[in-house]
Design goal:
Blueprint: H1 3-12, E1 31-38, E2 45-52, E3 57-60, H2 63-70, E4 76-79, H3 82-90, E5 99-102, H4 103-110, E6 120-121, E7 124-125, H5 133-153, H6 156-166, H7 170-178, H8 189-196, H9 207-213, H10 215-225, H11 236-241, H12 245-253, H13 262-267, H14 270-278, H15 291-300, E8 305-308, H16 315-329, E9 333-337, H17 341-353, E10 359-361, H18 368-380, E11 385-388, H19 396-403, E12 407-412, H20 432-443, E13 451-455, H21 460-474, E14 479-482, E15 490-496, H22 500-513, E16 518-521, H23 525-537, E17 542-545, H24 551-562, E18 568-571, E19 586-589, H25 596-603, E20 614-620, H26 622-635, H27 639-652, E21 658-661, H28 663-670, H29 676-692, E22 696-707, E23 709-710, H30 715-724, H31 730-748, E24 759-760, H32 761-768, H33 772-784, E25 788-789, E26 793-798, H34 806-825, E27 831-834, H35 835-844, H36 852-864, E28 868-872, E29 877-882, H37 886-912, E30 923-927, H38 928-938, H39 951-964, E31 967-972, E32 975-984, H40 998-1023, H41 1025-1037, H42 1040-1047, H43 1051-1055, H44 1062-1069, H45 1074-1081, E33 1087-1092, H46 1098-1111, E34 1120-1124, ...
Parallel strand pairs: 1-4, 4-5, 8-13, 8-14, 9-11, 9-12, 10-11, 12-13, 15-20, 16-18, 16-19, 17-18, 19-20, 24-32, 33-37, 33-38, 34-35, 34-36, 36-37, 39-40, 41-46, 41-47, 42-44, 42-45, 43-44, 45-46
Antiparallel strand pairs: 1-2, 2-3, 6-7, 21-32, 22-32, 23-25, 26-30, 26-31, 27-29, 28-29, 48-53, 49-50, 49-52, 50-51, 52-53
Length: 1633
C-alpha cells in the first residue's frame, strides 16, 4: 500500500490490513503459545510444546495432535520466531482461522535501548532448560506480556506511527491486531514523525520516500533514534532481514541538508563537536593551511579521502572526531586499520584520558580477559572506534563482530603501505579492499562505506597507487588533502663523521650547546639503550625508547620526557607517533633514516611550536647506508622464497584444492629455518603475494583451542596419570609425557615481551620432532583424561610482589572507598559535576586520597562495565547516571569488592609458596577456574556465601584489579592450533614467475633507491643547503622518474639500483674483468656451467659471485649452499669471503660434499667413513627422508665441478629435483680432471648443460702465466680428446716467460733437476713437482744437502690429521669442560694453553696451531660440532706452512690450485699414457707463472713449443742421501700395543737410535718401534745399493686402532718415523739380518 493510501485510510479510520482474512473479529484472550524443536541435520521435528490461554499444556512431537490441541477457539497462535521458523514446520501454510503473533520482531522495536530485555540474547530466548519447548513457550508468554505493557507505555503518537508503518506486514499484523492498534490520526504520519522527532532528525529528510519504500526499516530506525543511550544498537538479525535500517538512520541523523536545519546545524557541525569532544575552539592548521578542518568536514560528509598529514598535522583527531560524531548520531562503528599495535593502545589510552571511552583495540598484546572484554564491548555497542591490525581482518571473530555493527567508515593508517613505491609496502594491506567489498555484499549495503587513508609523507606515485587501489577494488574516488607548505622554522644540517667515536663526540657537543629537549634517532633497538646509558654516564641524562620495550617502561620514559623530567630521548622511529611535545628544539639522527619520507617525518618532530626555531642534524657516514642495505637484504622476501611457498601449497593441495595449515608448517615444509615470529610473517607475506597474483585464495583463519589450562602440578604427576590411563598405549606414553613436559615448561617460562602466551600444536610438533597428528591425538587424550582442561590459566604480575601484602590491600581499599563515595553521589537523577569538583567534594567528605586520575580510572571502569552512564564535555564536566537501581548496583559493588579482597590474598599465598607457578620476576601462573573454585569453597563474606559466584564475576574482579594497578594481567595459556584456510586457484603445473613478483620487486627496488636518495641528500646538504632543500621538495612534488633523471645521471642511474653504496660496489667488483663480470651479472639462467681455464681467476670469481648473491641478488645466507671437494678449499673460500664482505660471510654454508652429506645423515663426518655417504644422502633426498629445511636452497654453488663423480652428480640432481626453482652455478676445468681413479668425470658438467635454462660460459683469460707458458699449455692440451672448452687460453700477463724442456736418457733425473734449479734460481717462488711421494722425499733431501730450505707437500697414506697426538690432546681438553653447544672463550684459550705447553717441543705442533688459527678466522661462534667436523675433514697438508721455504716440493695432485713463479717438473716415462696422465701434466705445467722447466725421459714433450729443447745423454745415479718417510705399513703396528704410555711421552722431531730394525729412545735407550717385515725387506734392497741409516727421528705421534678391533678395544699410540739413508763407506747403522 502506498503512503498516500495509508494516510487517506487512516483519516477515514479504515485500514484494509486491520481486517483479518477469515474472521470479523479476534479475541485477544484466546491465545496459544507454540515452540518446536527441529533437528539441524535432517530438519525433522523432534519435539513440540504448547500452552493455551485456559492453562492447557501440550508436549508431543505429533503435529496432528497439536492442531487438535489448538482447536477452533484459539484466535492467536504466538511464539518466538514463529513466522520465519516454527510455522513452516507446523502449519504447512494452513493457518485456519488464527493469526500469528511473533515476539521476535517486536522486541527490537519496543526494547531498543540498553539494557535490552532480560529474556533475550540476540534473536534467542534465554531459557532455563535445554531443549524444553514447553519452557520456551512460557518464556515467550512472559516476553509478549512485557511487549504489550511496553506498547501501552508508548505515546499515542508513537503507537500511530508504528501502526501505520507496520500494518500489512506479516511479522507485525498479529501483534497489532492483538493489542488493537489504531492507525487513524488527524495528522499525516510524515508530520507525526517530524513532530515526534523534532531536534533528533534532519527536518528535511525525505520521509515520504522512506515510508513508501521502507516502512519496516523506518520503524526500526525510529526505535533506535528513540534511545537515550547512543551505545544501543540494532540487533544483527534485524539488519540481516531489513538491511536498509542503517542507511535510513544515516539519512535521518547524519546527512547534512542543504537548508541547514536546526538539527544539522547543531549535531553535524564539526566546530561544535570539536569543542564538545576535545575542547578545542578551532582546528589545527599546518603553515596556515586548514588541512585538518577540510578533511574532517569531508569525512562528516561521508566522502572517501586520502590525507597526507605531516608530523604534527593532527591526523588522529581527523578520524576520531567524525567517528565519535557518527557513534552518537547513528550508533556507528569506525574501524581503524593500523600496523602499529603499540600506537593503537596509545590512542585508546589518550582518548580515555579525555574521558572518551568509545575506543577499543583488539590485538595480540591483550590478556584473555581484556580481549574478551574488548570483543564484548564492540558487540554491545560500547565502541565507536575499533583499532585492529590488517592481519586481524582474516579473523572470523573480527568478521562476526563487524557484521553485528553498523560500520560507518574504514580508516587506513600508514596508507603508503598499499604502494610498492612507498617506503613500507605490505602485502597484507592489499586484502583490505577485498574484505570491505565482501563485508558490503554480506551487509547488502546500498552505498559504499567510505574510506579514510592517512600517511605522513607520500610522493606522487604513492598517492596515485593508493587512489588507483581503492578505485579498482571498491570503486571509490579519494579526495586528496595534502599540504604544499614546508616548515619554515626548521634548520637542517648534515655533519660527516667517519667513525663511531667522531659521531659520539659530535653528539655530545650538539646536546651540550642547547638546553632544550632533544630527540636522538638511531636505527637499531639495541642501540637506544646503549647510547642512552653512555650519555647518562657522561652527565647527559637520557632515556631509551623503542618498539620492543615493555609497554610500562615505554610509557614511563615517554611521560618523563613529556613532563621535562629528562630532556634527552634516544629512540627508534617508533617514538613520536602520537606524541605532541611542542618544545623539542633539536632532532639528531645518529643513524640516517632509510628514506627521505621517514627522515622528514622524524625530523619534523622538532619545532612543533611554529614560534620555535629548531635544528635537525644528521651525523652521517656512507657506512650508515650499508647498514640499511644489509637490513633490507635480511628482511626482503625473494621470489625464490615465494616459489618455495607455492611449491608447498601445491604439495598440500594435490588431493583437494583446499588446505588448512599453519604458517610454521608451511615454513618448515618450504625448508625455512629461522626465528618463529619472523618466519611466520614471511610466510604470510608470501601467501599474500600468491593471493595477489591469483594463485591462491585465503579464507578466514581457522583457530582450534584444545585446552586453556593444565590441571597437574608437575611432570611427575602427569607421567603417573598418563602411565595409569587406559587411553595411552605403551608406545604413546613417552610421546604424551614429552608433550606435557613441553607444555608445562612453556607455561612457567617467562614469556618474551609481546609474545602470544600459547603452546601451539604446530610449534610443539616442530620442537619435539613429532607429526602434527601425533601431537593432536595425544593432546585430545590428555584432555579426556583431565590432564588438560578449560581452566582458563592466566599470568598476573603483582606490582608490589616481594613487599608487604598490605600494599595491594591498601590500594584496593583506597579505590573501594572512593568508588563507594562516587556511587553514593549518583542519585536517581543525573549527577552533573566536574572532575575537579567531584574530587574536591570527595576529599572534604573524608576520602583524603582522592585524586582526579583515580576518579577517571574508576569512572572509565564503571562505564564500560555498565554500572553507570557517563557523558563528558571537553572541559571535563560530566553527567553520571546509574544504569540500574541503587540497591542492585550496591550489591554488585560489594560482591566485587569481596572477590577482589579474596583474590589478592589468594595470589599472595601463591607467591609466598615455592610452587612452580611463581617466577623470579613476580609473575604468577594461575587458573581462573581454580580461583573460582577456591572462592566458592572458602569465600565466606559479610554479605553471605560465595557458593553461587559466577566466572564472569571473577573475571570482572580481575579486570578491576588490573585497571586500578593492583596487578598486571598477561597472556593466558592456550593449547592452540591456528590454521590458515588456503584454496589453490591456479594449475599446480604453473610456476610463480618474475612477472607475478613485479609489485614486490618494484617495492624492493624503490627501497634500494630510497637509501641512495637519502644518502645523496646528506651529501648535498654538506655542499649546498638550498640545493638540498630543493632536492627534498622535488622528491615529494615531481614525478618520481623525472626526479631521478634530474638528480641521477649516467652511471648514477645504475648505482642507485644496487643494494650497496657505490664505494662498496667498486671495492668488491671494481677490479674484475668483463668476462668475470659477465658471470657475476648472470641472474636468470637456472644452471650456469663455467669452464674456467687455469689462472682465469676461478676462485676469485666464485668468491665475488657469492658476494653478489648475498648483496645484490636477494639470496639469504641460509638459502645459499656452496660445496667443495676439500676442507682446504672450503676454508679458503670462507676466508676470502670474510675479507670481502666481513662478518656476513660467517653465516654462509660452505661445506665439502662429504661434510654436507654427513649433516643430512645426522652424523659428524670423518674421511674414513666417507666411502658411500654421498650416495646414501642422494638416495635419502630422493626418497623424501630428509627434512625440507635441511635441503631447501635457492642457490647451489659447486667448485671444481670437473671432479664430480656419479655420486656427487646424483646429489646435485636430487637437490635440483626437490628445489624446482633452485639455481645451480658450477665452475670447473675439464682439462684439470686428474682424479679419474676415484670416479671423477667432467662429462657431468656436460650433463648439467643439458638442463633446461642452462648457460655455458668459458673463462679463458689467464692472469697467472706468461705468454710462453700459456702457448705451451695450449699446444699440449690439444692432444687431450673429449674436451668441453674449445677456445684457447689467452695470457693476460705482459711478460713473455720461458719454457725449458730437457729430455734425459737416464731414468734417474734428481741430480740434473736440482743442478738446473740452482743454476736458474731467482728471487721468485719455486716449486718442484713430482708424480710420486717417494720422488718428492728424495728431492727434499737432495735440495737440503745443496743448502736449500725445502718444504714437502704430499699426501699421507693411511694417516688422518685428527689422529695426531697434539690434536687428540686439544680435543680432550675441550671435551673435559662442562658440555654446551658453544665452546666458551675461556675454555678455548685454556685448552690451547695446556696443549701448546705440553707439546711445546713437538715439531708437528705448528700443524695444530695453524688449524686452530684458521678455525678461529672462519667461525665466529665456536660450536663443538663445527670444530669436530673441521678437524675430522682436514688433511695434514691443509695446514702445511710454506712460508720461509726456498723451494716447495709437491706431488702434482697436491699442487692443484697453487701457483709459483718457477715450476720444475720431474716426469718419468709413464708405463701407459692415458688421458688422466696428460691432464695431470697439464695441471703441473699451468702452475708456472713465469718459467717452466721440464725434466723428462718421455717423448710426450718433444714437439711442444719451448724456448729451449735439450737432450741429455748422461746417466745419473741415485743421490747419496735419501729420506724414507715411514707410514703405518712400514712399522710393526702390533709392537706398539703395550707401549702407549711410553709412546705418548715422546714428541715429534725427537731423535731416535736405529739398530737392527728397532728404534730406541735416545734418552732412555728403550726400544720404542720396530720396522714391519715388508719394510725390513725394502731396507735390504737399499743396503744392497750401498745405503746405510744415518739418522732417524719421529715425524708424528699418532693414534691407531685396527679396523677389525672389538669396539671396546682402546686406541694405541704409534710412531711415524723419518729415516735418513746415506751411500758410501761410513759408520752407518746396520739394517739387521
Amino acid at each position: 500500500m502506498s503512503f498516500w493510501n495509508k494516510v487517506i485510510n487512516s483519516i477515514s479510520g479504515v485500514d484494509k490490513n486491520t481486517t483479518p482474512p477469515h474472521k470479523e473479529s479476534y479475541d485477544a484472550s484466546h491465545f496459544c503459545f507454540v515452540d518446536v524443536e527441529v533437528s539441524l541435520t535432517d530438519k525433522k521435528i523432534h519435539d513440540i510444546g504448547a500452552i493455551r490461554w485456559d492453562g492447557g499444556v501440550f508436549h508431543s512431537a505429533n503435529k496432528r495432535d497439536l492442531m487438535t490441541f489448538i482447536g477452533k477457539n484459539v484466535d492467536f497462535v504466538c511464539g518466538h520466531n514463529i513466522i520465519r521458523h516454527d510455522a513452516k514446520y507446523l502449519f504447512d501454510g494452513n493457518l485456519n482461522d488464527f493469526m500469528l503473533v511473533d515476539t521476535l520482531f517486536l522486541s527490537p522495536l519496543l526494547f531498543p535501548e540498553r539494557p535490552y530485555h532480560h529474556l533475550l540474547k540476540d534473536d534467542k530466548l534465554i531459557s532455563d532448560e535445554l531443549n524444553n519447548p514447553v519452557n520456551d513457550c512460557e518464556k515467550s508468554h512472559k516476553l509478549l506480556m512485557d511487549e504489550i505493557s511496553r506498547w501501552r507505555e508508548l505515546s499515542t503518537t508513537l503507537q500511530v506511527i508504528f501502526s501505520t508503518l507496520l500494518y500489512g506486514h506479516e511479522e507485525f499484523n498479529g501483534f497489532l491486531t492483538f493489542v488493537g492498534a489504531k492507525t487513524d490520526s488527524k495528522m499525516p504520519v510524515v508530520e507525526l514523525i517530524r513532530s515526534e522527532y523534532k531536534g533528533r532528525i534532519c527536518e528535511n529528510a525525505d520521509l515520504e520516500l522512506m515510508i513508501n519504500e521502507y516502512p519496516c526499516e523506518l520503524a526500526y530506525a525510529l526505535a533506535l533514534i528513540n534511545t537515550t543511550d547512543y551505545r544501543s544498537i540494532t540487533p544483527s538479525w534485524v539488519l540481516h532481514n531489513f538491511p536498509n535500517v542503517e542507511n535510513l538512520v544515516r539519512l535521518l541523523r547524519h546527512t547534512k541538508c542543504k537548508e541547514r536545519c536546526e538539527y544539522c546545524n547543531q549535531e553535524l557541525d564539526i566546530h561544535v563537536n570539536l569543542k564538545k569532544f576535545f575542547g578545542f575552539d578551532k582546528f589545527r592548521t599546518y603553515e596556515g593551511e586548514p588541512l585538518q578542518e577540510n578533511a574532517v568536514d569531508a569525512a562528516v560528509g561521508r566522502k572517501s579521502l586520502l590525507a597526507i598529514f605531516p608530523t604534527g598535522g593532527g591526523k588522529s583527531l581527523t578520524f576520531q572526531l567524525p567517528a565519535l560524531m557518527e557513534g552518537r548520531s547513528v550508533h556507528g562503528l569506525t574501524v581503524v586499520i593500523s600496523p602499529l599495535q603499540s600506537l593503537m593502545k596509545d590512542q585508546v589510552d589518550n582518548l580515555a584520558e579525555r574521558g572518551i571511552t568509545d575506543a577499543v583495540t583488539i590485538n595480540g598484546m591483550l590478556d584473555p580477559i581484556s580481549r574478551a572484554e574488548a570483543i564484548q564491548r564492540v558487540m554491545n555497542g560500547d565502541a565507536s572506534l575499533l583499532y585492529i591490525a590488517p592481519e586481524m581482518l582474516r579473523s572470523k571473530t573480527i568478521e562476526r563482530i563487524l557484521l553485528a555493527r553498523h560500520v560507518v567508515r574504514f580508516v587506513v593508517d600508514e596508507a603508503h603501505c598499499f604502494s610498492s613505491w612507498g617506503q613500507d609496502f605490505r602485502v597484507d594491506y592489499l586484502y583490505i579492499g577485498k574484505f570491505i567489498s565482501e563485508y558490503q555484499k554480506i551487509k547488502k549495503c546500498r552505498e559504499a562505506i567510505p574510506v579514510s587513508c592517512f600517511t605522513a609523507t607520500a610522493k606522487q606515485k604513492v598517492v596515485q597507487d593508493i587512489c588507483d587501489y581503492f578505485k579498482k577494488t571498491l570503486n571509490l574516488d579519494l579526495e586528496i588533502y595534502a599540504s604544499a607548505a614546508t616548515r619554515t622554522n626548521l634548520r637542517y644540517s648534515v655533519i660527516h663523521a667517519d667513525t663511531e667515536d667522531d659521531k659520539y663526540m659530535m653528539l655530545r657537543s650538539l646536546i651540550a650547546e642547547s638546553p632544550c629537549p632533544v630527540i636522538v634517532y638511531v636505527s637499531r633497538t639495541k642501540r637506544t639503550k646503549q647510547l642512552a646509558e653512555k650519555l647518562t654516564r657522561d652527565g647527559f641524562k637520557a632515556l631509551p625508547f623503542n618498539g620492543k620495550m615493555d609497554a610500562k617502561d615505554k610509557q614511563c620514559n615517554q611521560e618523563a620526557f613529556m613532563n621535562d623530567k629528562v630532556r634527552i630521548m634516544v629512540a627508534t622511529s617508533a617514538f613520536g607517533m602520537g606524541v605532541d611535545k611542542n618544545d623539542v628544539g633539536i632532532v639528531i639522527h645518529y643513524d640516517i633514516s632509510d628514506s627521505l619520507e621517514n627522515y622528514v617525518q622524524e625530523a619534523g618532530r622538532a619545532g612543533r611550536n611554529p614560534q620555535l626555531e629548531a635544528r635537525c642534524f644528521v651525523l652521517y657516514s656512507d657506512a650508515d647506508l650499508d647498514k640499511h642495505f644489509i637490513l633490507l637484504n635480511q628482511t626482503k622476501l625473494s621470489i625464490s622464497e615465494i616459489q618455495q611457498v607455492w611449491k608447498v601449497v601445491k604439495d598440500l593441495t594435490k588431493q583437494r584444492m583446499r588446505a588448512c595449515c599453519s604458517a610454521l608448517e608451511i615454513a618448515r615444509k618450504a625448508g625455512w629455518d629461522d626465528s618463529v615470529s619472523d618466519i611466520e610473517t614471511r610466510v604470510r607475506t608470501a601467501l599474500g603475494a600468491l593471493e595477489q597474483a591469483g594463485y591462491i585464495e585465503r579464507g578466514n583463519n581457522v583457530p582450534h583451542v584444545y585446552a586453556t589450562g593444565i590441571t597437574v602440578k608437575n611432570i611427575d604427576e602427569a607421567r603417573r596419570r598418563i602411565t595409569e590411563s587406559l587411553l595411552f598405549e605403551n608406545e604413546d606414553v613417552e610421546k604424551a609425557v614429552r608433550i606435557i613436559k613441553s607444555l608445562i615448561s612453556q607455561k612457567y617460562i617467562s614469556k618474551a615481551q609481546d609474545a602470544e602466551a600459547e603452546s601451539r600444536i604446530d610449534y610443539l610438533a616442530d620442537i619435539l620432532g613429532m607429526s602434527k597428528s601425533d601431537v593432536v591425538s595425544n593432546v585430545v587424550r590428555m584432555r579426556q583424561e583431565g590432564i588438560l582442561a578449560d581452566t582458563k590459566d592466566i599470568s598476573a604480575y603483582l606490582n608490589d610482589a616481594g613487599e608487604s601484602e598490605n600494599k595491594s590491600k591498601r590500594l584496593l581499599e583506597r579505590f573501594t572507598k572512593l568508588e563507594s563515595y562516587i556511587l553514593g553521589q549518583i542519585s536517581d537523577e543525573t549527577l552533573r559535576i566536574s572532575y575537579k569538583q567531584l574530587n574536591d567534594n570527595a576529599q572534604k567528605e573524608g576520602v583524603e586520597t582522592s585524586n582526579e586520575k583515580d576518579l577517571r580510572t574508576l569512572l572509565f571502569f564503571l562505564t564500560i562495565k555498565g554500572y553507570t552512564r557517563k557523558k563528558e564535555d571537553a572541559s571535563h564536566n560530566i553527567e553520571l547516571t546509574r544504569q540500574a537501581d541503587f540497591e542492585s548496583i550496591l550489591k554488585r559493588f560489594n560482591r566485587r569488592s569481596e572477590i577482589c579482597q579474596f583474590t589478592i590474598g589468594w595470589l599472595y599465598r601463591l607467591t609466598s609458596s615455592d610452587s612452580p607457578e611463581t617466577s623470579n620476576n613476580n609473575g604468577i601462573q594461575f587458573s581462573v577456574v581454580d580461583l573460582l573454585n577456591d572462592l566458592k569453597a572458602n569465600g565466606e563474606t559479610l554479605f553471605g556465601s560465595m557458593q553461587n559466584v559466577q566466572l564472569e564475576e571473577v573475571e570482572e574482579a580481575l579486570l578491576y584489579l588490573s585497571k586500578i594497578g593492583a596487578l598486571k594481567l598477561e597472556g593466558g595459556f592456550l593449547v592452540l592450533y591456528n590454521a590458515m584456510d588456503i584454496r589453490r586457484i591456479k594449475d599446480s603445473r604453473l610456476r610463480y614467475k618474475q612477472e607475478d613478483y613485479r609489485m614486490l620487486s618494484e617495492f624492493y627496488r624503490q627501497k634500494i633507491q630510497q637509501v641512495h636518495i637519502v644518502g645523496e641528500y646528506a651529501n648535498l646538504m654538506v655542499r649546498d643547503y638550498n640545493a638540498a632543500l630543493q632536492y627534498v621538495q622535488d622528491y615529494f612534488q615531481m614525478d618520481y622518474r623525472k626526479f631521478v633523471s634530474k638528480y641521477f645521471k649516467g652511471e648514477r642511474l645504475q648505482e642507485i639500483e644496487r643494494n650497496v653504496t657505490p664505494e662498496k660496489y667498486k671495492h668488491i667488483f671494481g677490479a674484475l674483468s668483463a668476462k668475470q663480470m659477465e658471470i657475476i651479472s648472470e641472474k636468470e639462467s637456472r644452471c650456469i656451467v663455467v669452464a674456467a681455464g687455469p689462472g682465469s681467476g676461478k676462485t676469485r670469481v666464485l668468491v665475488h659471485k657469492l658476494a653478489s648473491l648475498l648483496l645484490l641478488e636477494d639470496v639469504k645466507h641460509e638459502q645459499l649452499l656452496m660445496l667443495t671437494f676439500s676442507r682446504a678449499a672450503a676454508i679458503e673460500f670462507k676466508q676470502r669471503l670474510l675479507e670481502l664482505i666481513g662478518n656476513a660471510a660467517h653465516f654462509v654454508e660452505i661445506k665439502t660434499f662429504h661434510s654436507y652429506c654427513f649433516d643430512l645423515l645426522g652424523k659428524i663426518g670423518n674421511l674414513d667413513d666417507a666411502k658411500d655417504v654421498v650416495a646414501r644422502a642422494a638416495q635419502m633426498i630422493g626418497n623424501g627422508e630428509v627434512e625440507p629445511n635441511r635441503i631447501a636452497k635457492t642457490v647451489l654453488v659447486i667448485d671444481e665441478a670437473q671432479d664430480m663423480s656419479e655420486e656427487e652428480y646424483a646429489l646435485i640432481h636430487a637437490l635440483m629435483t626437490v628445489n624446482e626453482d633452485m639455481r645451480v652455478i658450477v665452475v670447473g676445468d675439464d682439462d684439470q680432471n686428474i682424479f679419474e681413479f676415484r670416479g671423477s668425470d667432467s662429462r657431468f658438467m656436460s650433463q648439467l648443460l643439458e638442463k633446461p635454462g642452462a648457460r655455458f660460459i668459458e673463462m679463458t683469460e689467464n692472469y697467472r702465466s706468461a705468454k710462453h707458458v700459456v702457448d705451451f699449455a695450449n699446444a699440449f692440451v690439444k692432444g687431450i680428446p673429449g674436451r668441453i672448452k674449445h677456445s684457447p687460453i689467452v695470457s693476460m700477463n705482459h711478460k713473455e716467460g720461458f719454457v725449458y724442456i730437457r729430455h734425459h736418457v737416464s731414468h734417474l733425473m734428481y741430480q740434473p733437476l736440482v743442478e738446473d734449479l740452482l743454476a736458474h734460481k731467482g728471487n721468485g717462488t719455486i716449486c718442484v713437482l713430482t708424480q710420486t711421494n717417494e720422488e718428492a722425499a728424495i728431492l727434499v733431501a737432495l735440495l737440503r744437502k745443496n743448502g736449500l730450505r725445502s718444504k714437502l707437500v704430499q699426501s699421507m697414506d693411511g694417516f688422518r690429521f685428527w689422529n695426531m697426538a697434539e690434536v687428540r690432546m686439544f680435543l680432550k681438553q675441550i671435551n673435559s669442560e662442562n658440555y654446551s653447544p658453544i665452546i666458551s672463550e675461556n675454555a678455548w684459550e685454556e685448552a690451547k694453553q695446556k696443549t701448546f705447553a705440553m707439546y711445546a717441543n713437538s715439531s708437528s705442533l705448528p700443524y695444530l696451531q695453524r688449524c686452530l688459527l684458521l678455525f678461529e678466522k672462519t667461525n665466529k661462534a665456536k660450536y663443538h660440532t663445527d670444530l669436530k667436523e673441521f678437524i675430522f675433514e682436514s688433511s695434514i697438508e691443509d695446514f702445511c706452512d710454506l712460508s720461509g721455504a726456498d723451494v716447495v716440493v709437491s706431488t702434482i695432485h697436491k699442487a692443484k690450485g697453487r701457483e709459483f713463479d718457477d715450476v720444475f717438473m720431474l716426469i718419468t716415462n709413464p708405463q701407459r699414457v692415458i688421458n688422466e696422465t696428460l691432464r695431470r701434466y697439464y695441471v703441473g705445467a699451468t702452475r708456472a707463472k713465469e718459467r717452466l722447466f721440464i725434466h723428462t725421459n718421455s717423448f710426450l714433450f718433444d714437439k711442444m713449443p719451448a724456448d729451449e729443447h735439450l737432450v741429455c745423454t748422461t746417466e745419473y745415479d741415485m743421490p747419496d742421501e735419501i729420506v724414507l718417510q715411514l707410514s703405518h705399513r712400514d712399522v710393526n703396528l702390533g709392537f706398539f700395543k703395550m707401549r702407549k704410555k711410553e709412546i705418548l711421552a715422546l714428541r715429534a722431531g725427537q731423535t731416535l737410535r736405529f739398530d737392527n730394525n728397532y728404534f730406541y729412545d735416545c734418552s732412555t735407550d728403550k726400544v720404542v718401534a720396530q720396522l714391519s717385515q715388508k719394510m725390513q725387506g725394502e731396507m735390504r734392497f737399499w743396503s744392497e745399493r750401498g745405503y746405510t741409516v744415518d739418522s732417524s727421528s719421529i715425524r708424528f705421534v699418532v693414534a691407531w686402532r685396527p679396523k677389525d678391533a672389538p669396539k671396546d678395544e682402546k686406541e694405541h699410540a704409534v710412531l711415524l718415523i723419518d729415516l735418513v739413508l746415506k751411500k758410501g763407506e761410513c759408520n752407518g747403522i746396520r739394517f739387521g739380518d
